Fold each of these.
Amino acid sequence: MRLGCLTNGHNPLRKLQLAMMPLALRMRPNDLVRTLTYRPGLFGKPFMAIAQPLLRGRSFWTVAERERMASHISRQNQCLF
């Protein structure tokens, strides 16, 4: 289920940024990006404050190894990552 607010509920500046992403990145922003940028104070910033240390913090795996693992798992789940 896709929430309508994630498609057209952003403020005007965010709508412009999301509209420019396909031109710059040659791909539509995925639902995670749209969720993180919709009311970022409610979900996006707190979520990223937790996620970044987990993804980029100290580990015996390198960042490249973690990215490779995430890519492999996403592929196994047929997720575009």
Note: The chain has five helices and no strands.
Amino acid sequence: MKILFLDIDGVINSSSSFIALGHSSYFEGSDSGTNFSPISLKLLEKLCNKFDLKIYVHSTWARKCDHKWFKEHIDIDVEFLETFGYDEKREERIETGIRNYKPDDFIILDDQDLTRFFKKQAIVVNPLNGLDAESYQQVCEYFGEKTKLILF
């Protein structure tokens, strides 16, 4: 099994998505999932399907929203794993997921720099844009696939 450890704020919602969707803060529309970037969600779904990744939410969003909430509110066809250890730091929540699920491989998408804990697996996402083409390409390259991005 391969796991994608997912942060929410700054990854599937971003400053760009708030402006585009007309929200004024991270929390406006959060209970209904309407502040998630459709582009970031589609890229997330493509990554999960391409590399057979299961999602483990290590975000503090997991405190109020369990994995069932994400399946109901995120309009993508991927598997969300149950998350554990809500009171721990991010790196500890990820380590809990690794201990509980024992993945063959994993990748981390977060807007905070976790490379000091996970040098190869942590990808730092720009919170202004969220999961975008650059982050998508980094995940592909981590799993050994070179991508050809079209540049204008």
Note: The domain at 2-142 is CATH 3.40.50 (Rossmann fold).
